[in-house]
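SECTION: protein entry
WANTED: fold as tokens:
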Amino acid sequence: MRQVELGEDPLSKKAELRAVPTFAQFIEDQYLPHVRSYKKSWETDVSLLKNHLLPRFGTRYMDELSRIDIVKMHSDRRASGAAPGSANRLLIMMRYIFNLALRWEVTGIKGNPTKNVPLMAEDNKKERYLNEDEARRLYEAVCESENAMLQYIVPMLILTGARKREVLDAKWEDFDFDRRLWRIPTTKLGKPRHVPLSDGVMNLLSSMERKGDWVFANPKTNKPFVSIFCAWNTARTKAGLSDVRVHDLQHSFASLLINSGRSLYEVQKLLGHTQIKTSKRYAHLAPETLLAASNAATKAVGSIMGVMPNRVVDVPLVAVQG
């Protein structure tokens, strides 16, 4: 009665509370159908939810989750022995989940409990790229592989910077040889993008026999490879490059561009990144490039250096008062 006197409607409040979904209900009814519709890696989301988030928050109502709950989840994951990146993945997912709930105006959701919860510093990002000699050794090894398609797949990865799945699923119909463009219909972001066909790529594709719809098909099935790991692992080990991952081929492509004087903007467009900061992590400058830059500075001040003393003996001593 007091609530009524104050102009409030207790019945409507009760109805609103009943309409607030639990975390598990929101995930099952709204989140998963959404990510399945566009996200190629949605199965990774399912794994993180099943193993970490649902056991912890599944029965809780969405409006009950607080910043303290999020911070504890984040720190507990790190304390369990997981790397900072693994802990951050849970925080990033929770942030996205609540952003969607806010965007969809889910009943009871007034804010995002992950707001102002910082990511942990990640010091485990492996920087690896191929130099010219390593690329040559790797190419020789893949040419000797029992998987006859590896000699085409690996160079395609290096020459285009494309992702492994993009290359393995490529179809001949995706290539416009007149305009020298490769249209990748579905990317990691769920949107098509176009990759220019360099002279190297054109030569590579022209050397291949065209059979069926897929460019790099498994000869035994005429379908895309499910995995090339065994053949790849054998080849990289033979080349003495057991620490090189398939993803490092994309890194190498970007590093080659940067060391050839191309801009980060060009790297961003060629790799299909939506943000320039994503491209920056690939912008590795080889020691040779840095040395050349340093020598350029020396040349620029050459006239000044010419009048500076070259040897210690040329520098006069300063009189010292005894």
Summary: The longest strand covers residues 181-184. The two ends are 98 Å apart (CA to CA). The CA atoms of residues 135 and 158 lie 9 Å apart.
